[in-house]
Backbone:
């Protein structure tokens, strides 16, 4: 019996000594693993949203107005005043518009003048040259009413072709410098000529 107690006392002493040595050496007692539901999880990353442009659309309705000089293509009339206004829609790069124009010329052969009131349907094609510059070409057709101070008025077919340059002022406004070869059928007096105009185009 005494021998059994001595053996038990020795075993307890060895166990306590081993545990003290392990703690002194920094050895950690293994811990039981936490259940899976208690473990911290990382949420999935949020989906990336597509980038959106803050620049305004190049398409939209617009209005324009211009003033210039009508240079005759013959010696029958003198250089005169040209006014033009239009409403249209920019499909980028194509523009379509309805335009109304006014011209007045003094006639050399008689003491009088002739005025033209024109209604034209025009089509334009813009080229983007960068740096806010947009050269374009155009063509149009319609009718022109001639008011001659020495004879009866008449309304006839008219057409025009031309080119120009748009210069960006801001996101909605363009300065427009244009050239038109204007050819009305006036039934006698030849009023074909070259119109040089400068104006403003505003897009909504």
Residues:
């Amino acid at each position: 019996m005494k021998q059994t107690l001595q053996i038990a006392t020795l075993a307890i002493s060895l166990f306590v000594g081993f545990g003290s040595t392990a703690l002194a050496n920094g050895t950690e007692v293994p811990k039981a693993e936490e259940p899976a539901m208690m473990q911290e999880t990382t949420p999935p990353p949020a989906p990336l949203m597509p980038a959106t442009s803050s620049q305004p659309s190049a398409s939209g309705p617009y209005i324009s107005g211009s003033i210039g000089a009508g240079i005759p293509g013959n010696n029958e009339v003198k250089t005169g005043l040209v006014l033009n206004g239009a409403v249209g829609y920019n499909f980028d790069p194509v523009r379509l518009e309805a335009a109304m124009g006014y011209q007045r010329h003094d006639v050399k052969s008689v003491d009088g003048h002739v005025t033209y009131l024109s209604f034209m349907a025009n089509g334009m094609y813009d080229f983007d040259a960068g740096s806010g510059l947009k050269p374009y070409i155009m063509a149009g057709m319609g009718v022109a009413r001639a008011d001659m101070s020495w004879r009866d008025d008449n309304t006839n077919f008219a057409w025009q072709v031309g080119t120009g340059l748009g210069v960006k002022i801001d996101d909605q406004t363009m300065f427009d410098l244009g050239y038109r070869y204007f050819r009305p059928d006036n039934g006698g007096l030849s009023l074909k000529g070259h119109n040089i105009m400068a104006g403003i185009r505003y897009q909504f």
